[in-house]
Specification:
With about 375 residues, the chain is an alpha/beta fold. It is about 40% helix and about 10% strand. The protein has a single domain, classed as SGNH hydrolase (Rossmann fold, 3-Layer(aba) Sandwich). Helix 11 packs across helix 12. The structure holds 2-acetamido-2-deoxy-beta-D-glucopyranose (6 copies). One 2-acetamido-2-deoxy-beta-D-glucopyranose binds next to loops. It comes from Linum tenue.
């Protein structure tokens, strides 16, 4: 018996409401007409950027972009994760592709290898598209998993550069993506010291600004895309089980998110000004995940709502028996129920979109990504 559960399972990011075990049936919708649009959008992006196949992508952050750095035999490495793509667990916190896969696709390159998956042998082949350092459960100043926080992830790339896996020419032709989806706030909540959210947000953004500056100045990547936080208060966990029916959000948490995003945008403006004033070769691009996520959620609600599904935002994974109303805990994946049509659901578990969800979010985010080409 564990005396003290210090960390909640990582699949429970933003676990503000530890609520009753309620089992929700998954919506089952007849037609998957969304996929037409999505496939077309992805093809368009690829056509448009085919010429750019030499760019490398370096990814930092948490489970929204992790493609295989989470600790083995845990969470995203256990079935049923990965059942849609690649068919077996791949360390992605979803049934299939996550945001990193879509961004790589947009750039016309293969998904960069996860740092923990680099193996001896064809190293230059493996490193050709860049590296993903993101790890589920991590944040800017704290982590709810054993993974490295953002600054340490950047340190991992620094070390690779010192070992000459990449030279300045490579880095000049690279893009970095930074995702921080809320684990710092979750950590504080779990530790019951979220006494002053404003103060925590300031601390988080101050550190994030330092880290973004390091990617430009220490690492030497000239284009850094930073994701705003998603409307975390609208995730099934944060919103609570009743919200899964009413689609209401946790306004208190969304107010924190809103403040976080305002301060982050200001920090990015400051960094850009600093680049200009000091003639530094680095620009920063805000990727509005808040807006894209919100649009995708609304579209999904509207779409499934029109088909008279009561509960379009209910996660695909549920537990019949167990402590949690949805999702899985790392060693209980066997008890989990998977909905019949993950390809029609928006949320995979209580905190993470399905591949279908990411597909819809990507559609809404895509215009933000063109900024990488507007800043040549
Ligand atoms: C590197 O080699 C391994 C083993 O031969 C192979 O499975 C893998 O696809 C190769 N990786 C790349 C990026 O070519
Ligand atoms: C899985 O990961 C979580 C978060 O890092 C940790 O608390 C837990 O002990 C891990 N489970 C196992 C079986 O290692
Ligand atoms: C930098 O590394 C790339 C391979 O990643 C290589 O093709 C290129 O010649 C190197 N450039 C210099 C200046 O060493
Ligand atoms: C990298 O880019 C900067 C800015 O464009 C340029 O000054 C520098 O010479 C480039 N370095 C290499 C090795 O290409
Ligand atoms: C919370 O922190 C902020 C910033 O440090 C401070 O201005 C504010 O007075 C604090 N609020 C409370 C209730 O302590
Ligand atoms: C930045 O780029 C300019 C030209 O684009 C170059 O002259 C300068 O040396 C670069 N600075 C650094 C730090 O790479």
């Amino acid at each position: 018996m564990e005396k003290r559960q210090r960390f909640l399972p990582v699949s429970f990011l933003f676990f503000f409401f530890i609520t009753l075990a309620v089992w929700f049936a998954c919506p089952q919708i007849g037609a998957a007409d969304d996929h037409r649009t999505t496939a077309r959008a992805r093809r368009d992006a690829r056509e448009h950027h085919r010429h750019n196949g030499h760019v490398k992508l370096f990814v930092f952050g948490d489970s929204y972009v992790d493609t295989g750095n989470f600790e083995p035999n845990n969470g995203s490495w256990l079935p049923p994760f990965g059942r849609t793509f690649p068919g077996v667990p791949s360390g992605r916190f979803s049934d299939g592709r996550v945001l990193t896969d879509y961004i790589a696709d947009f750039l016309g390159i293969r998904t960069p290898i996860a740092y923990q998956q680099i193996r001896v042998g064809n190293i230059s082949e493996q490193l050709k598209s860049g590296v993903n350092f993101a790890c589920g459960g991590t944040g800017i100043v704290s982590a709810i998993s054993k993974g490295p926080i953002l600054g340490d992830q950047i340190g991992q790339l620094g070390q690779m550069i010192r070992h000459r896996f990449y030279n300045q020419t490579d880095l000049n032709n690279s893009i970095a993506i930074v995702a921080a989806s809320g684990n710092d706030y979750l950590y504080a909540t779990l530790q019951v010291f979220l006494l002053n959210a404003t103060a925590l947000t300031r601390r988080v953004i101050k550190q994030l600004k330092t880290d973004l500056g390091r990617i430009r100045d220490e690492i030497g990547i000239p284009k850094v895309g930073v994701l705003l936080m998603e409307p975390a208060g609208c995730l099934p966990n944060s919103a609570g089980p009743s919200a899964m029916y009413s689609s209401k959000c946790n306004d208190a948490y969304n107010a924190i998110v809103s403040n976080h995003n305002q301060l982050l945008k200001q920090a990015v403006r400051d960094l850009i000004k600093e680049s200009t004033n000091n003639k530094k070769n680095g620009t920063f691009i805000v990727l509005d995940l808040f807006q894209a996520f919100s649009i995708a959620l609304e579209e999904h609600k509207y779409h499934t709502g029109s088909l008279k599904y009561k509960n379009p935002l209910k996660p695909c994974l549920t537990q019949e028996h167990g402590k949690y109303p949805c999702g899985v805990s790392h060693n209980q994946n066997s008890q989990v129920r998977v909905c019949k049509h993950p390809e029609l659901a928006f949320f995979w578990d209580c905190n993470h979109p399905t591949q279908n969800g990411w597909d819809e979010i990507y559609l809404a985010l895509q215009h933000s990504l063109y900024q990488f080409y507007d800043t040549e």
